[in-house]
Write a structure and sequence with these properties.
With 623 residues, this protein is α+β, with helices and mostly antiparallel strands. It is 37% helix and 18% strand. The chain contains 16 helices and 23 strands. The strands form 5 sheets. It has an 8-stranded antiparallel beta sheet with strand order 3-2-1-15-14-13-12-11, with helices on both faces. An 8-stranded antiparallel beta sheet has the order 22-21-20-19-18-17-16-23, with no helix packed on it. Strand 20 and strand 21 (460-466) form a beta hairpin. The chain starts with a helix and ends in a 5-residue tail after the last helix. 40% of the residues are buried.
Length: 623
Amino acid sequence: MIKRISIFLYIFLLWLCFPNPFSAAENSTPSGIPMDELEEFIDNYAEEYIGDTVAGAAIIAIKDDQIVFSKGYGYADVENQIPMDPETTVLEWGSITKLFVWVSAMQLAEQGELDLEEDIRNYLPDGFLTKLNYDEPITVLNLMHHNAGFEENIFDLLFDSPEQLVSLEEVLKIAEPEQVFKPGEVVAYSNYSTSLAAYIIEEITGQPFYEYVDKHIFEELEMDHSTMHLPVEDNQEMALHKGKGYFSGENGDFIESDPFYISMYPSGGINGTAADLAKFAQALMLPESEDTSLFLENGTVSELLATSYTPEEGVPGLAHGFWEYDGKYRGLTHSGNTVAYSSNMQIVPEDNFAIIILTNQADEIDLLFGLTDELVGRGDYTVQENLPAASKVEGSYLSARRTYNGFMNLYAYLAPLHVEAVNDEEIELDMAGFKAVYTQTSPYVYKLKSGDDVFIPSNVMYFHENDGKIAQISTTYADYLPMDKSKAFLFISLGLFIWCMLYFLINPFILAVMAFIQKRRKKKILAVTKWNWILTLSGTALALNIAVLIIRMLSKPMRAYSELLPHFIGNYVFSVASFISVIIVIVLWSKTQLSKVQKIGYALTCISSILFIVWLMIWQMYS
């Protein structure tokens, strides 16, 4: 007996001297924050933002299949002081909804109903897609990887009235974007691709996509406080517990958002609690000994979370629709934004950890990305020797996720990505005033060193070099392509726009003064003068039409295309009137004796009208 006790004490002493090397990881976040300090850490981090830049947030952390932290911060309803509650507060998940499309697709693939590498046209009705410009097949994997080649189209995505909602099939036909890249060449985040995949699931299963998700995901995981069936107001229980969405106002105020509705709901329509989203995250990280309720075989989860696309070895890519994150351990993540809600979910399967953050704040980044980054950590790296000079990647780049056809193509040029070498190893990125410094770790691979939180999701960037030039930058959510217009062209274009707008908004007042003087002097008004008036007013109508269009888009970017159609028709009508007036003014000019001042004035108006029309054509202001 004494011998047994001696052996036990000996082993116990050895254990004290040589603690289990895995114990720290098992009792801490991936970044190394001890679990018993987690609440204090999150409290201190959230305190800086809650009530200042964020109305409310629901945060849940999961470790080893257990919820180790669940807490609400701030208010779900600021006016009525209703606190945020992860268990009961219903919030909009935004693009996290897309993960339910990809899980559904993998379920059908597992059953042999869907081939991820099959041309999607074999699953769609004949002639469903009408704007494809390449013969190469588009696969479901292309849709998962957001590299089917579609341009961005923001129209007919969100509406401010439930009466505007249409079926998924109908909105996919109305909002079909142009295919501008060959499939597989360029990653450009696409709401359309995801909803198209959901429609393919509808075609295979013969039921609305939201019904499929209700039965095969929500019910299986007992996600009883979530819905994909819109509008939420139709569900009294959900509407009763829904947190209000907010924009940031002046002096720290929060401005309540009007509700918005989405016909392309598989891309961002789920409303639910943080606790329900935690159940989804847990189902993706079950221990191997437990059977998953999402799939027939546990191996399908591993396949789902395995890398399915990467731009370069060692560079984060995608795992069947989940974005890879270069953390202390490999992370799989997806964030989401609706008009006034922001969300982020990241799972770290290798460390059995997950973090879920839902907010009722528009465009929130500090909690979503900053806090997540603190909890999961960033991957370690070593810097290789003899790397290409950082100056080789300098330049201005445009996001591939943009509109190429129509007047919205102008927006991308207002906030390009500027890359400048800091030294031989580091670059500084500047995008719309947000800045970050990246360090080159291997040839043309750059990792985030410091900067604004907006860059955290893209903490690794890969520059594709071809014959000494950068052809493309791979980042999370969207690649970047070299600027396709020179600075000189853009400055001239901006100057021309300012000139035309000012000229045609001011000139009518000048002409009115001159007409008043002529009337006082009892001078006869010439025919050419009358047509110059028509020409000027046509230009003024164009300027006002463009100004109203800009104001309307700035006040509410998400609109139905039909709302803007009157502006495009107006541009055509006023441009034709201007063109005809220019011709008549020139003809009458040749037949009329004019003063030097009149000649200069009429010439300026004719030239300005022609230049204005050219500007409108270049920037596609007619569609």
